[in-house]
Amino acid sequence: MWAFVGGVLIALGVGLTLLAGIGLLRLPDAYNRMNAVAKAASLGVVLTLAGTVILMPDPAAVVKTLVAIVLQLITAAVGGFAIARAAYRSGTPLARINRFDELAERSREADGEEER
Fold first, then answer.
1. What is the pLDDT of residues 59-71, one digit of tens each?
2. Residue 86: how many CA atoms within 13 Å on its side-chain side?
């Protein structure tokens, strides 16, 4: 029973990681690609690690894997935000399907305040 649950979690994790890779190749701009990778790949890694813990319930491996899961969940969100912010500040264009840039006015206001 536990082997089946562990195998399903690993298969789901691999599937989500595969979807993140497809999103990285197919989505229209850097911001959408970053979102696909940050969300789907991090959840895929977490599910794969959880399946591994179920298949190999050694106490030392469980502790190490739980630490890796927590670090993955924390760093994926922060890293995704940092990459998107760096892309926006460097002037990476939005996809054509985006009708407007909600941050453009805020960005101009912030740049004007920094120059003073």
1. 999 999 999 999 9
2. 7
